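We store chain and fold; thus.
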Amino acid sequence: MKLWAGRFQKETDLVVNDFNSSIQFDARLYEEDITGSIAHATMLGEQGIIEKSEADKIVEGLKGILKDIQDGNVEFSMEYEDIHMNVEVLLTQRIGDTGKRLHTARSRNDQVAVDMRMYVKKEICEIVDLALKFQSVLVEKAKANLDTVMPGYTHLQRAQPTTFAHYMMAYANMLKRDITRLQDCYERMDEMPLGSGALASTTYPINREITREMLNFARMTDNSLDGVSDRDYCLELMSDLSIMMMHLSRLSEEVISWCSWEWRFAELDDAYSTGSSIMPQKKNPDVCELIRGKTGRVYGDLMGLLTTMKALPLAYNKDMQEDKEGVFDAIDTVKQCLEVFAPMFATMTLRKKNMRKAASEGFINATDCADYLTKKGVPFRDAYMITGRLVNNCIRAGETLETLTLRDFAAISKEFGADVYDALDLKTCVEGRKVVGGPAPSEVTRQIGKIEDFMTEAQELLEQMREHT
């Protein structure tokens, strides 16, 4: 019999029962559900709402159920709809009618709300940890490649010289923003909704401060209607994860290009590549392609919940059951991507000579040539036109700026001197870009130090977050 069957004269149709059930996916909330129930039962006993001995009996019963689930000795039933009813039925079967007192002064609405917040807090910590580990891989790659010159691109055209270290720090800064967004989400959602009841709290003399402290929440929700109907934190998390996946997808696209025979800037380790069933020469970057593809999946999870929530009146509606699968899927997908991306990237081999060769062939020092003239007093627009004519001459003659003779330069402008070759050297071009944020090795070293300081602070904050999860 359903726990809510008193009002009804008929059994639920089996099709409706299956349609209504969420146990197939919310079973993963068992630990949060039992932990929340232990706190609630303890509070009921301390407040004298139920006998202290009854509360103790409930707590011990719940602890036994938790251990049995963790040991794989419990099989959940579709008959009982969700994880909350499954646990309550198990408890009543084990300790008798005392188990029926657990739900006093509580609704499934505030019960599921606290379960989800506890679960999301825990998973944010796991994702931040994985992101920090990946960020450390990027930092190590940067340290090892301060002088690895490569072309930077705009419009997918070779544009200006940079270094692989500079490239890595761009993505390290993206991850920094991802991590801080998740930390902000954690801080904002660290409110306990238990005690909100179905929507209008309860007439029992509960003490929400007891359960707040037991469940390690920083604050209590301040309005019971909002407490049970809020899923902003789920949307914020999924938005943060969507942005993170966008960053991973962009880097995946880079790696796919770098590993192609057209670029040959990098090669993935065999352990993180796949082959073809028909073409024996192939070495495919499937991991990157899957990450790129899974990005759309996480976007879909976000859009699905945004659409679900957009027209729901207060307070709880069954539509909100649809939050869990999307949240779970987004979390699982991001964790899986981070777990595989970090070791794949760490073991990737760079083809530095190919990078340098590409940099030397794309006229990416043309801006430096114009700057050379400008520093000699030539207005920049004139210098720009002069350099454009030089590039055009090089293309027609199959030359590069570095291979032109001094006579070739002088034929275009008398301002060119023998020092132009040093100015056009790619190493000079990179080392001269010492502006804050630039690719000069000394400046990238500063950027690395700043990210390392951030990682230390973020790790300390992560430990604090875990202590309150």
Summary: The longest helix spans residues 108-143.
